[in-house]
Amino acid sequence: MKKSAIVLAAGSLLAGSAFAQSSVTLYGIVDQSIRFQTNANANNDNSWELTNGAVTNSRWGIKGSEALGNNLKAIFQLENGFDPDTGRANQNGRLFGRQAYVGLSGDFGTIKLGRQYTEGFNFFGDYDPLTIGNYTNNAWPFFLTNFRNDNVISYGGKFGGLDVGASYGFGEQAGSMSRNQYWGARAAYTFGPFGIGGVYQEVRNLTGEKQQMWGAAGKYSIGPAKVFVGYIGGKDRTGSVDASLNFDTSTGATTLNPIPAGGNAAANPRKDTIGYIGVTYQATPALALTGVFYGDYVENVNGVNNNNGRRYTGVLLAEYSLSKRTQVYGTVDFNKVSGGTTTEMPGRNNQTGAAVGIRHIF
């Protein structure tokens, strides 16, 4: 009993000492919008809904660091996404589905271990005018990035104008290093008003088939305006991209729907060629305006050979800051599909959406 008490007391002292050298921050975003959308189901009815934000999903998290000396820090971050309209957790109900990692940061860069954003998401988050949207209708080009991955060890570093990153996700399948595996790498360079870079990544499923994504983008600042151009390419033998974009006409949902019967993604991989151009403009210190156009040429949609199609999207967004932490916004988006990609709409081959919302950052 005395030994246990001494160990407990020593642990408490060490914990108190560590806490005194550490910083822990609770943070988050609560973002809600009222959204109208045309052709929202197989009967082409319109819909009204209270939903998450147009470009930022609601979240809360805890992050912290401890100074270890010589500019070395221990870091961690735990982050959960949620829907304020229902209180439900996102990412299939995970406790910390957005991010959950621990690592070390220093002059050499940063090493993280845990659930993290993919290199594709990290790269295009800096090179997309919307910083990657939150509605399917304004974010679908970046479904190719897979957003996040489990069991990842990553490295990121900034050296002057050079920003690099690389990550590897353990498949954790006995007897195989490639099944369920992920890896990616990115590099970007900023010089004066210019920024340019590229990214490549692969994600494999449980049978070892891979979904590849690559891209390049640039941006240029002109006074209060910033112009963006980008390219995203993809080749998917897993069927995951089609599954994430196809509508279930019985529910109107787009999450993890099966591809239509008759397709074989392994034999006839989906191929995406996406280009975009956009601009952001800081009209006043409080008012920011964004416009962007995305276009995609898709081959072998739903794993059917020569089942090709196109998708086009235009988005306008206006954000007004009421304070440093609170913004209101309005947005309009238009999507049109043709050929094989018509399965990405529940009814007619087009949708128009409009929304207004409020975002508070804490």
Automatic annotation (TrEMBL):
The protein's name: Porin domain-containing protein
The answer to whether UniProt assigns keyword Signal to this entry is yes
Query: Carries keyword ATP-binding?
Result: no
Q: What is the lineage of its organism?
A: Bacteria, Pseudomonadati, Pseudomonadota, Betaproteobacteria, Burkholderiales
What does UniProt give as the signal peptide span?
1-20
The record's listing under InterPro entries reads:
Gram-neg_bact_OMP, Gram_neg_porin_domain, Porin_dom_sf
GO terms of biological process kind: monoatomic ion transport
> What Gene Ontology molecular-function terms does this entry list?
porin activity
Record keywords? Cell outer membrane, Ion transport, Membrane, Porin, Signal, Transmembrane, Transmembrane beta strand, Transport
Which GO CC annotations does the UniProt entry carry? cell outer membrane; pore complex
